[in-house]
Amino acid sequence: MTMVPTALESWDGDPGFLRSTMNGLTIVVKLGGSVGGEDTLPADVAVLQDAGARVVLVHGGGPLITRWMERLGMEARFVDGLRYTDAETLDVVRMVLSGLVNGEIVARLEASGARAIGLSGGDDGLLRAVLRDQRLGMVGEVSAVNPVPIELVLGSGCTAVVAPVAVTDEGQFLNVNADTAAAEIATAISADKIIYLTDVAGISDGSSPTPLSRLGPARARQLIEARVIAGGMIPKVEGSLRALCQTGAAHIVDGRRPHCLLDVLVGRAGLGTTVAPD
Ligand SMILES: Nc1ncnc2c1ncn2[C@@H]1O[C@H](COP(=O)(O)OP(=O)(O)O)[C@@H](O)[C@H]1O
Ligand SMILES: [Mg+2]
């Protein structure tokens, strides 16, 4: 009889080493909107789950939201790089994030041998928010995180897949930034690691084509001030800084690279930027 190898046995490294380093670790991973071309991520998560890690995935969905708005004849508007969200846009955001993207990620994980449960920020008060800025419409700032629904999912041996929509105390849904939500979740569940998978090789300081391998808080703030770190990189760096007191470091990694998640966790060289105290 041939035995089907477990996800961990099919990994190209030493399973014993991975189990000893990952068992019991809580890892929050933010998936960028453009991550997933190669899509080795579900397999990596299955390996991590086999090794005993507790994984939380927080996903974006910006490009798909924009595509669906176009299909529906709606115009996407941005104010200072943030999506202007009126009531109809919010409906599309919720449909795409919770309906399409979240379900798709859960199904892909299951097909790779991982176990996964999808959550929206509305479930059991997972993500609470307050209105951020009237000019942005229905966009929120995360004001509180209830770790209980995530703990329930992790405690049952599943990966938690979180759609970053949040709800006000009055029960109104708000659109929130996924990078910020990931950092707040990492803090609330006392995560050991936070990793941002995105569509660039790491954080660039504007002077060299190679991204920085390390970035400290003071320099990070300077680069934001100087607008060298801009647009979608700002909430990742701010989220990294926010999570530092909990995780000690944050990683901003090229999500287009096959097996980027396992590689960064086992410390394989040359992967992205580590944000950590100097
Ligand atoms: N200093 C910087 N280094 C690297 N990328 C930067 C920097 N400043 C701004 N960016 C931009 O941030 C983008 C990543 O953020 P974003 O487009 O929101 O992707 P994601 O879907 O991963 O959140 C990069 O594609 C890049 O254009
Ligand atoms: Mg982004």
What does this structure look like?
The chain is of the alpha/beta class. Helix content is 37%, strand content 21%. The strands form 4 sheets. An 8-stranded mixed beta sheet has the order 5-8-2-1-11-13-14-12, sandwiched between helices. A two-stranded antiparallel sheet has the order 3-4. The protein has helices at 15-22, 41-50, 62-71, 87-111, 148-155, 178-188, 217-225, 233-247, 260-265, and strands at 26-31, 54-59, 78-79, 82-83, 116-120, 127-131, 140-145, 159-163, 165-167, 173-175, 193-198, 214-215, 250-254, 273-275. Helix 2 packs across helix 4 and helix 6 (178-188) packs parallel to helix 8 (233-247). 47% of the residues are buried. The protein has one domain (7-275): 3-Layer(aba) Sandwich (Carbamate kinase), CATH 3.40.1160. Strand 6 and strand 7 form a beta hairpin. It is built from 9 helices and 14 strands. Magnesium ion binds next to loops.
